[in-house]
């Protein structure tokens, strides 16, 4: 039996790929009006087979809709997950920058942290971003 800490980490890893993909699909649609598998191949620097397998899982999980040789579209659930993931990503990135981390490094680091940060930690980060650092006596 594993500890709750390790169980949460495994669950985080399980959803990490889905979150990254729906966020990338939403970004592609926002910027180009459409998302195709080749856009994801370029974005993630992976093979077409990897993208096709992942898209199949996302479709099975109700996050995307697509047909062979057609654009990839987000379902309502996929759009909600993309928005949630994008918001978490921006909070973490902004918080790291507030700590003095460069934008380039904050962008890179936030990619990993965003998937593992708890709701409580994310809320604390957001509070500091909105209200500044708490005063200690």
TrEMBL record:
<keyword id="KW-0805">Transcription regulation</keyword>
<keyword id="KW-0804">Transcription</keyword>
<comment type="function">
    <text>In the presence of manganese, represses expression of mntH and mntS. Up-regulates expression of mntP.</text>
</comment>
<keyword id="KW-0010">Activator</keyword>
<dbReference type="Pfam" id="PF02742">
    <property type="entry name" value="Fe_dep_repr_C"/>
</dbReference>
<dbReference type="InterPro" id="IPR036421">
    <property type="entry name" value="Fe_dep_repressor_sf"/>
</dbReference>
<dbReference type="InterPro" id="IPR036390">
    <property type="entry name" value="WH_DNA-bd_sf"/>
</dbReference>
<keyword id="KW-0963">Cytoplasm</keyword>
<keyword id="KW-0464">Manganese</keyword>
<dbReference type="InterPro" id="IPR001367">
    <property type="entry name" value="Fe_dep_repressor"/>
</dbReference>
<comment type="subunit">
    <text>Homodimer.</text>
</comment>
<dbReference type="InterPro" id="IPR036388">
    <property type="entry name" value="WH-like_DNA-bd_sf"/>
</dbReference>
<dbReference type="GO" id="GO:0005737">
    <property type="term" value="C:cytoplasm"/>
</dbReference>
<keyword id="KW-0238">DNA-binding</keyword>
<dbReference type="InterPro" id="IPR022689">
    <property type="entry name" value="Iron_dep_repressor"/>
</dbReference>
<dbReference type="InterPro" id="IPR022687">
    <property type="entry name" value="HTH_DTXR"/>
</dbReference>
<dbReference type="GO" id="GO:0046983">
    <property type="term" value="F:protein dimerization activity"/>
</dbReference>
<comment type="similarity">
    <text>Belongs to the DtxR/MntR family.</text>
</comment>
<feature type="domain" description="HTH dtxR-type">
    <location>
        <begin position="14"/>
        <end position="75"/>
    </location>
</feature>
<dbReference type="GO" id="GO:0003700">
    <property type="term" value="F:DNA-binding transcription factor activity"/>
</dbReference>
<protein>
    <recommendedName>
        <fullName>Transcriptional regulator MntR</fullName>
    </recommendedName>
</protein>
<dbReference type="InterPro" id="IPR050536">
    <property type="entry name" value="DtxR_MntR_Metal-Reg"/>
</dbReference>
<dbReference type="GO" id="GO:0046914">
    <property type="term" value="F:transition metal ion binding"/>
</dbReference>
<dbReference type="GO" id="GO:0003677">
    <property type="term" value="F:DNA binding"/>
</dbReference>
<keyword id="KW-0678">Repressor</keyword>
<dbReference type="Pfam" id="PF01325">
    <property type="entry name" value="Fe_dep_repress"/>
</dbReference>
